[in-house]
Write a structure and sequence with these properties.
By secondary structure, this protein is of the alpha+beta class. It has 2 domains: about 5-195 and about 355-415, FAD/NAD(P)-binding domain; about 200-350, no CATH class. About 35% of the residues lie in helices and about 25% in strands. It has helices at about 15-30, 45-50, 70-80, 85-90, 110-125, 180-185, 245-260, 275-290, 295-300, 305-315, 330-340, 395-415; strands at about 5-10, 35, 55-60, 65-70, 95-100, 105, 130, 135-140, 145-150, 155-165, 190-195, 200, 215-225, 225-235, 240-245, 265-270, 340-345, 345-350, 355-360, 380, 390. The strands form 5 sheets. Strands 1, 2, 7, 8, 9, 10 and 20 form a 7-stranded mixed beta sheet that branches. A 7-stranded antiparallel beta sheet has the order 17-16-13-14-15-12-18. The protein has a 3-stranded antiparallel beta sheet with strand order 3-6-5. β8 (about 135-140) and β9 form a beta hairpin. The longest helix has 21 residues, at about 395-415. The radius of gyration is 25 Å and the shape is elongated. The two termini are about 30 Å apart.
């Protein structure tokens, strides 16, 4: 591609946010849009998301589902493409959605491939040129002349540039942080990053013996001695620690606190509907009604059997002790464990297993109405590159679609078609 043949719009990164920006920009501006991606086959993160089913969005999305930059800015961006408009958009490109528990919206086909194929088809229909296996190494802003990009395909010129390279999560899909380095070189502040939606490594406990078991819990995170987060969702015990929605959601809060060198403590209530006092009453009642029942038998009626057995073994309590013989001290020990078992978290499993990145390009350096940089005219940022991360359940994809729409409208206004 000749260097003296500049594109009106170049978008770097063909993930969810980059594809959304390309489609909407192509439709709104009717100008030349070049979408480049370093991978030979783009959209890897879309394909593996949601267990290869792609949790496209959530039925209810508000700014309170996100962390990072100011929520007033997040709210403005989300308003550019609402959930209802997102559903209509996907229906238009041939992907009907269905709602599942947790108000998560998936394609009716249960195939993430259908989502990616529909987005790629919509991009082609919007006259977007997709250049794969084209890695951008550097970008130079040339004031009135736009941008000069150094790429594996040679130098490229762009009148306007959209950065959609993602954060650091799942680097095997291409999100290796190179875009954040380019953003810093172009004058932007980068909020320090940590993994988000990442499984947690527990260094002591009984997790290995119950690996693969999932059940509802409530995780409580204490930061500097004060409870800052309570998350009640399903948790999955694994050979390395804990995963599942509860653990993934709490991970970003724990890791951000540790990044700030604050003390953290994580506990799990294995019976989130119970309190210590209610359990004490329950033990008294059971001892009277079923004195010959074993502690393990009674506990297995409250928890998955394997978790009940593992918990008692972890506390070195005889599982066959009869309820009538249960001492006050043992009973209270069990009640405390059921309502606030400490989880000794060494770390998360890192970016290789994280579904999102916390941190990134500072949100207040972006115009929320257009996603254009306040530091570099003609430069736009979308998706996970920004200091915005959502909880599990389709929220990060919604941010990708909405920020892509906002950027496309900003590009259209700049080019003069709106």
């Amino acid at each position: 591609m000749p260097i003296d043949d500049p594109h009106d719009i170049v978008i770097v990164g063909a993930g969810a946010a980059g594809l959304a920006t390309a489609i909407f920009a192509g439709r709104l501006t009717r100008r030349r849009v070049l979408l480049v991606d370093g991978a030979a086959r783009p959209g890897a993160k879309i394909l593996i998301s949601g267990g290869s089913r792609c949790n496209v969005t959530n039925a209810v999305v508000t700014e309170r589902d996100y962390w990072g930059g100011r929520r007033t800015i997040i709210s403005r961006v989300l308003a550019k493409l609402t959930v209802a408009q997102t559903i209509d958009f996907f229906a238009e490109i041939g992907v009907a959605l269905k709602e599942e528990p947790g108000m998560k919206l998936f394609p009716r086909s249960d195939r993430s491939r259908d989502v990616l194929d529909a987005l790629l088809s919509a991009a082609r229909a919007a006259n977007v040129t997709l250049a794969t296996a084209t890695r951008v190494y550097d970008v130079v802003a040339q004031e009135a002349n736009g941008f000069l990009l150094e790429s594996s395909a040679g130098p490229l010129r762009a009148r306007t540039l959209v950065m959609a390279t993602g954060g650091l999560s799942l680097p095997k899909t291409g999100s290796d942080g190179a875009g954040l380095r380019i953003a810093r070189a172009l004058g932007h502040s980068i909020v320090a990053t940590t993994p988000a939606l990442a499984p947690l490594v527990v260094t002591q406990g009984f997790n290995e013996s119950v690996s693969g078991v999932a059940h509802e819990v409530e995780l409580s995170l204490r930061v500097d001695g004060r409870i800052t987060e309570r998350i009640r969702r399903s948790m999955l015990w694994t050979h390395f620690g804990v995963s599942g929605p509860a653990a993934l959601d709490v991970s970003r809060h724990l890791l951000r606190a540790r990044l700030e060198a604050r003390s953290t403590a994580l506990t799990v209530s294995l019976l989130p509907s119970a309190t210590f006092e209610s359990l004490e009453e329950r033990w008294t009642h059971l001892a009277s009604a079923r004195p010959r029942s074993t502690l393990n038998g009674a506990l297995s009626e409250m928890l998955p059997g394997s978790v009940a057995s593992a918990l008692l073994n972890h506390m070195q309590i005889d599982p066959e002790v009869k309820l009538a013989s249960l001492t006050r001290s043992t009973r209270r020990t069990v009640s405390h464990a059921l309502t606030g078992l400490p989880l000794n978290v060494a770390d998360s499993r890192g970016y290789n297993y994280a579904e999102a990145t916390a941190g990134g390009v500072a949100l207040d350096e972006i115009n929320a109405g257009s996603m254009e940089s306040r530091r570099c005219s003609g430069l736009y940022f979308v998706g996970e590159m920004l200091d915005v991360d959502g909880r599990l359940g389709g929220f990060n994809f919604q941010w990708a679609w909405s920020s892509g729409r906002a950027a496309a409208e900003g590009l259209a206004r700049r080019i003069g078609t709106l």
